[in-house]
Amino acid sequence: MEELQLIPSQPVWEKVEVQIRKKKEKRRFLYFLFLPTLLCGAILYLILISNNRTNNTSEGRMTIGKLKTAKSINHNQQPTESTTRVENRPKPENKSTGGDPVTADKSINVCSKKTNLQFVNAQNIFPNKIIKPRLASKKQRSSGFVVSEEPETLKPSKNESLVVNESPSSGFKINDKQVSKHQPVDRTPGTYADSSGIKASNTFGANKTSDIFSKKKIQPDSKWHKIASVQVGWSQYKTGLFANAYMGQAYSSGLSSGGSSNYLYYSSPAKKDFSFAISAGLRKDFKSRINLSMSLQFHYYTVGTLVGQLKEHDTIAYYNGASFPISRYYTNSQQNRYIDRVGMIEIPLSLGYQPFKNLPLEFSIGASFGHLIKSNMLTFDYQSNFYYYNKDNNIKNFLGVFSTLQYKVGKKNKKQITAGPIVQFNATEMQHYNLYTMPHLFFWGLKTSLSF
Amino acid sequence: MDYSILVKDCLKGKPAAQKRLYDHFAPAMLSVCYRYTKSLADAEDVLQEGFVKAFLNLSQYKFQGELGGWIRRIMVTTAINYLKRNSRYQTDLVFPDEQLHVVNHEAHPEIKMEAKELGDLIRQLPPGYQTIFNLYAVEGFNHVEIGKILGIKEGTSRSQYARARALLIQWIEQKDNGIKNAVYAK
Question: For testing the chain A interface, which of B22, B37, B48 should be mutated: the one with the most A CBs within 10 Å?
Fold first, then answer.
């Protein structure tokens, strides 16, 4: 039974071929859906991470404050070196409360163990008032202090109290350095105490100061910088639009066994032409030398092809195993230059790295997702030996990869100009399957960006 | 022919390699498909479907067996699915589970005839018999495997095969007698 062989008819292979391409295109479409989704997810994740980091900075401070508060209420703590040192100082006379030691001692000790901050002449600011660490109204919370008329009945803490000598001028003293009382004094929660023994931790008043310091501590690197860039260069089809002679020859021999055509024509080679791109986007610095950028870009490619005369009459064109009527076409006699113009919207995403710390040279690689807006690209009919235009032959979505080497001018985190060479290769073919015509767009040129 | 290079080229999506692979295996595979169907057009449909499957799943071929055998297996599976799916074959593909009759395994008449003639006779069998006969006698599956492939009992497969075989023997004998009578008449 094995020796029995039958020759299938020619349309069988053509149908097989068409179906293979269709299924692969479906897979490619899914691939195109998957990658942007992944990309958007990654960007969203990075944004969330950066937001969390910012929130954690301020939340972390608040947590420290709360912990310190809780800690300070524990009156059984043993004195530390600093508190002991303060405690050993001579206690000043209580003036404001008329020397009532009970009232004077009824204070909340919210002292941090390691603080050496002293609040001087607080009694002048809040005479006959006790500062207690209770968050009341929103307005009061912002200041961090609650000033009550009534004395509290809490027990004083002798061990952790910071008793401060009066100073002729009102204000803070940090390690014996005079500081204005409106000036933020320290990031570390400490103790404010007046001469009567009223003490409060600056933990509660540290919100303002911590905010100020938070702003200072947040690295400007975590911001998204705006970038605008321009690219100018050349574009070309990678294999030459209609110049894959080897493949054409190989297929020609295949067709000769039972095909409809025994001779395949060759087209003229494509020639490079002008190309440019303009883009606007965002850049984020992750570490001192790594950054991620994403932008929206319009890219205009042109590639030249030598064609013959324009004929305007009805004929049949063959493409991808199918035939269809066309009304105008160019002959293949290499007399006139025809420019293929391709306009695309692209979303390039790149990862930059500066390999040398002291050399402002950045190397970046990236992927670009493109969508065809407009094209007048011709298709070569290898069976009929002419060029024609059919927009359905063009692939609409593209995936490109690119690489740049950029030299940076300007200070970091301020306006910065980068310039350098760029190469981009569109991994997706420009047209659907066609024996000869499987071109990939290739761009090389100069890229200049401004980030601010 | 070095199939490994050809397969690798096909996996890269080279149309020339795909065409070569098709050209090499299509004639043999069409005869396989033809054995399961009633017409060449149906066989070509199966062939087309089978090759599409083969190309799309070529990455699953691990170079461990014959590439031809791997494609043949795809064709057989595709052909059976085609028969199950196609309304023209569905009515004849009903396999009743009752035991048909006792199989006489000792009757083995010597059959000398061309493959094409035998193929034509097999194709004249009802589709149910035809499929089981092809799977058992030509492809080499046992009745347990056939039962699993077609979703029938092993006994049903045996009975159907026996009937198919008996019918074929009867037809071959009639054909032989007809030829002999024609010779004697001359």
Answer: B48
